Amino acid sequence: MAGPADTILRLDCSPKGRDANSSRFADEVAAKLSVLEPGAWQVYRDLAATPPSFIDHGFTRDMNLFPVATVASATKTLRESEKLIGEVESARRILIATPMHNYTVPAVLKAWIDQVVRIGRTFESTPVGKVGLLPDRPVHIVVSAGGRIVGDRARQPDFLTPYLTAVFATIGLRDLTFYYLEGASRDEDTRTAAFRAARAQLTLLS
Prior knowledge:
two-stranded antiparallel sheet
């Protein structure tokens, strides 16, 4: 079993699976990460194929009663949450490949976040606000969007970027890098240009 910081955790979120533009570029990011982290092996989750559970009444009741990891792991309502949190804790880096759905994250990614962002376990509430309990580590996020969402050419809202920035900061993860594939599904020329721009950014990764 992997110990602390032994893995690269990869989450794919597109219903298109490995054919999705976000997943294809995530393959390139993963290859670069394997060079940067030669001792790490990959933990892969296809969230679209196997979605995390939605939190329910039992979860909201027991998360306050059983914040300790060892106890939560033995508690039916929190067992899935504890497993997903453990994968984050064991990761040197996290790689997320996601489409933008209706200007924000897809439902499967939101479900994963709701399992991982847990009061008393990955963050605590204080008089000055929420404080993350996880050590920071790099999070690489590949975003495929149907329209332009970055810079002067942006023509549609982007609630995904500020949301992920805020929610990951809540648990202590602030080292985020976004790679945007804008309009990559429109035509081959646009797709080629989107991948070229993302690859230029990837060359700077160290």
